[in-house]
Recover the amino acids of this structure.
């Protein structure tokens, strides 16, 4: 199986391990992401990956108001200990994530949270659009795949580009903090409100 630069980057952002070691792990695991993480853990390299198994039941609820009260965000972000939860670094991260939610309006925390019917609807829209644009039959599925990936990057908080540095995703930002704080960090849930928006059941 071909090991792509995207696969290497994803493994690197999760584990905090260097590019060459990530590539070596993916080659050894024949492209299997979970096996590659295990490979790095067995070698004692994966700092953040090791922490991702640990329970994160402490943390804070961050409240953020933006635009003179026009947008409000409530975010639950968890870590492992009260000591880290009270620290400036963790609280700054919580504020940054709340700011991200206010500015970029995600709908879900991560890709796995998107309901199947929503994904199916997006696939249907992307396919119909490609047909209407007269795209060749043989490349429509590739185009649909690309549009679905773009949709996920827009609506999933963890996959969004960080508003202060678009070379990072929100997931990268969290993993950097996992590495520096030495604790697992989980975004549990969030809610975003905007003044005058229509509420649907």
């Amino acid at each position: 199986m071909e090991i792509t630069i995207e696969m290497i980057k994803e493994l690197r952002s999760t584990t905090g391990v260097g590019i060459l070691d990530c590539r070596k792990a993916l080659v050894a695991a024949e492209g299997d992401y979970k096996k590659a993480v295990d490979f790095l853990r067995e070698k004692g390299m994966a700092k953040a990956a090791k922490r991702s198994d640990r329970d994160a039941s402490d943390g804070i609820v961050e409240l953020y108001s933006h635009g003179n009260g026009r947008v409000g965000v409530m975010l639950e972000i968890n870590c492992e200990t009260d000591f880290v939860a009270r620290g400036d670094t963790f609280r700054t991260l919580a504020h940054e994530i709340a700011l991200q939610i206010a500015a970029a309006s995600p709908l879900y925390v991560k890709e796995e949270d998107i309901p199947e019917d929503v994904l199916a609807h997006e696939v249907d829209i992307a396919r119909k659009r490609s047909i209407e644009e007269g795209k060749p039959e043989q490349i429509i599925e590739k185009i649909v795949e690309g549009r679905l990936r773009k949709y996920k990057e827009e609506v999933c908080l963890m996959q969004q580009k960080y508003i202060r540095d678009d070379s990072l995703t929100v997931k990268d930002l969290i993993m950097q903090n996992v590495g520096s704080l030495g604790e697992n960090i989980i975004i549990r849930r969030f809610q975003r409100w905007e003044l005058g928006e229509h509420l649907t059941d």
About this structure: Strands lie at 58-66, 71-79, 161-162, 165-169, 186-194.
